[in-house]
Amino acid sequence: MSKRKPPDLIEAQSRGRFIQSGLFSFSELSRHEGIINILHKESGMVWSIISDRKNMTGFSLLAPGFFSACDPLRSFSPLKTAELNSLMLDGTSISYGRAPLWTGSPPVLRQDREKRKRELAIMTTKIEEGDSFLSILKKKDRTIFQRKAREITEMISPDGNHVIQGLEEMIGLGQGLTPAGDDFITGVLLAEQSLQRPLRIDTKKIEARLEKTTAPGRTMLFAALRGSFPAFILSYLEQIDKARSDGEIVTSARAAAKHGSTSGRDCLAGFYWYELLSASTPE
Q1: Do 201 and 277 meet the contact criterion of CB atoms below 8 Å apart?
Q2: Would you say residue 163 lies in a domain?
Q3: Domain count, the chain
Q4: C-alpha span between 169 and 150 (Å, rounded)
Q5: Which pairing describes strands 200-201 and 163-164: parallel, antiparallel, or unpaired?
């Protein structure tokens, strides 16, 4: 009888800051091109094995070698970590103990109100909203989710201490694995950190309602509440901060808007909604 071939070992190129060490149980949640999402059963968070750095998050393992060496379309049996710093996927071990840490920390943008106004104008004139919550910025809605989102955001106003109250009502709003409301809140949290305005967010109320959304949505908001954001939107901020023309801003905005079904546009909507609210709030 021939011996079973030892599992292939693949080294992850990067790991998100929330990827833990230990023996955990997993189950497959969803699969897309270059992305496999697995549910970490102990925490309820979603880890992602990805082939492209542009899809990095605080819960990702960048392992392009896995996608080139294995058939990513095959069905996986229930998963367990084989060692303290590796995942075993049907005979293929992805090791991440020595992988560089990816934090997802946002840049602080230069204080340029006029540039933010130009970016906002581009969002409302050059980017199609479709079913996304960019409809809030454009003040028009076609779906029941867009209408509900508009009603919620219209009721939100900062209190006397410049703290936004009521944003937690957006949690879980919308369809899909990551509801649009969660993407929108992520954009708002990103704006708070990168724009450095006096307007603050009541994060405790958001944290208290994370169980009201899906596992992917909860995972994204958990990371955002701790200052870690998806790579695609961080790339957008870096590009617009360097942009010297409206054309460059349009190109960057369109690239970010293409992320996911509506996730990119929903995140952008939250970012610029915060900018609008901040601009209308006395400092």
Answers
A1: no
A2: yes
A3: 2
A4: 11
A5: parallel
pTM score, two decimals? 0.93
Same domain, 132 and 258: yes
- Quote helix, strand, coil % in the chain, to nearest 5: 40, 20, 40
Query: How many of the other CB atoms lie within 10 Å of CB of 54?
Result: 14
Distance CA 283, CA 278 (A): 9
In this structure, the answer to whether residues 133 and 240 fall within a common structural domain is yes
Q: Domain ends where: 52, 70, 102?
A: 102
Which H helix or E strand runs over 146?
helix 144-155
Whether residue 264 contacts residue 258, with contact meaning beta carbons closer than 8 Å, is answered with yes
> Is the Cβ–Cβ distance between 118 and 250 less than 8 Å?
no
Q: Does 33 map to a domain?
A: yes
Q: How far is CA 14 from CA 27, 49, 55, 268, in A?
A: 22, 10, 12, 26
Q: Tens of pLDDT along 79-90? A: 555 457 888 776
Same-domain pairing of 56 and 117: no
Q: What is the pLDDT of residues 175-196, one digit of tens each?
A: 878 999 999 999 999 999 999 9
**Residue 77: pLDDT above 70?**
no
Last residue of some domain: 62, 79, 102? 102
Distances (CA, A) of 11 to 49, 60, 61, 62, 230: 12, 14, 10, 9, 22
Q: 47 with 169, same domain?
A: no
Burial classification of residue 53, based on how many CB atoms lie within 10 Å of its CB (0-12 exposed, 13-18 middle, 19 or more buried) = middle
- Where in the sequence is the domain holding 165, given as residue range(s)? 113-279
Q: Are residues 86 and 175 in the same domain?
A: no
